[in-house]
Amino acid sequence: MVESGGQPFGVEPxxxxxxxxxxxxxxxxxxxxxxxxxxGLEDALGLVVQSSHELFKLAGAGVMTFDDLxxxxxxxxxxxxxxxxxxxxxxxxxxxxxxxxxxxxxxxxPDVTSDERWPELAGGMKNxxxxxxxxxxxx
Length: 139
Prior knowledge:
Blueprint: E1 2-3, H1 21-36, H2 41-55, E2 60-66, E3 72-77, H3 80-92, H4 96-103, E4 107-109, H5 119-125, E5 133-135
């Protein structure tokens, strides 16, 4: 999930759309260190999400994955808004991230609070500070 907060494809206001070389270097260093620090999978995914949030200047980012029973579960989020979106989708069993994971497509929604494709998600996201979302399946 990439959550945007009103900017196209989740880019924060004022961002040039370019990756800062110094931030990229710091991100790679931090992620590389995590592989030798005995970091667990959930914490590692949290680092990846936070790094993508910082590196690409996204307003928010999150990860959901299928568990052993093939149920889609929230794993990590860059901030509270992204976490709420992931948790509501997990509970509702519907939303852009669910569709992206299940169907392997890129899913965009300019406003998840009024998107008719996911009525339960829309109700659960009212007044939560997250509207626009872009989701894709990784791997």
